[in-house]
Amino acid sequence: MKKDLLPEELTTEQQLRRRTLKAFAWFGLVSLVPIGVWKWIAAQPKAAGIRKPLRQVLDANINLNGAYFSDTHLAPTFPKGLAAKQVRVNGRDGLKSTIDLTTWRLRVEQPGKSALEFTLDDLKDLPKQDLIFDFKCVEGWSQIQHWGGVRFSDFVKKYGLDSTSKYVGMETPDRGYYVGLDMQSALHPQTLLAFEMNGAPLTTEHGAPLRLIIPVKYGVKNLKRIGTIRFADARPRDYWAERGYDYDLAL
Ligand SMILES: Nc1nc2c(c(=O)[nH]1)N[C@H]1C(S)=C(S)[C@@H](COP(=O)(O)O)O[C@H]1N2
Ligand SMILES: [Mo]
């Protein structure tokens, strides 16, 4: 019988061949496991058109997404000095008519209740928040921007608004632009009703007198010039969802 050579007695070529064979043996063994697992998955019943074990992985991912932007998971914030001085302007839907800031009121509609109206001063009674974060547009640009306003959740709490509805819809006064938001995102601690940009009152093109800033969503959901906020269990209409975009547009 041929003597088994110690590794150091082998030529480089022999050592290489040995290692390759070893690797192939392991590869063969390991690949048997996934085949077995796959056969088992394929034999499982389907849930919502997908084999149950795969569906469960999907569901786990969806739950993870929810947890990612829960109260304890915040979008990264930056020091004021990093905020853009020239803030990009994008989208003028619902902003084409002129607006009289002295007569403007924020209208709030809730199921089974009469509509409420708020002035900007009513909002300014709440604790002011500054938020400097990376604003992201689906068109592919992002910019570090500095916004000031009050938490939507503080507004809901202070005026006892209906946080049990599934959705919140927001519209411009002329109804030319409108968005729908799931309640969890609306109540996120970084979601602001903003009346300031870079420490100064909002300009018309950035949504004066009041706009939405919602860092857990793409730019399109950050509605400028809010006229009405509507609480509802049915999914509110959404301008860009009607034009083929994903409804959630979560980051
Ligand atoms: N009323 C209104 N709000 C709007 C839009 C719009 O067209 N009309 N465009 C959205 C989009 S696509 C983006 S990226 C942001 C841009 O906000 P900015 O112009 O302050 O940068 O506003 C969002 N809010
Ligand atoms: Mo956008």
Protein model, in words:
This protein is an alpha+beta fold and about 250 residues long. The chain folds into two domains: about 5-40; about 50-245, Oxidoreductase, molybdopterin-binding domain (Sulfite Oxidase, Chain A, domain 2, Alpha-Beta Complex). The chain has five helices and twelve strands. It has a five-stranded mixed beta sheet with strand order 4-3-12-7-8. Strands 5, 6, 9, 10 and 11 form a five-stranded antiparallel beta sheet that branches. A two-stranded antiparallel ribbon has the order 1-2. The longest helix is centred in the first third of the chain and has 32 residues, at about 10-45. The radius of gyration is 27 Å and the shape is globular. The structure holds ligand MTE and molybdenum atom.
Secondary structure topology:
Elements: H1 12-43, E1 46-47, E2 50-51, H2 52-68, E3 106-109, E4 116-118, H3 120-124, E5 128-136, E6 142-151, H4 152-158, E7 167-171, E8 178-182, H5 183-186, E9 192-197, E10 200-201, E11 211-213, E12 228-232
Bound molecules: the ligand Nc1nc2c(c(=O)[nH]1)N[C@H]1C(S)=C(S)[C@@H](COP(=O)(O)O)O[C@H]1N2 and molybdenum atom.
Residues 87-95, 137, 172, 177, 206, 219-220, 222-225 line the site of the ligand Nc1nc2c(c(=O)[nH]1)N[C@H]1C(S)=C(S)[C@@H](COP(=O)(O)O)O[C@H]1N2.
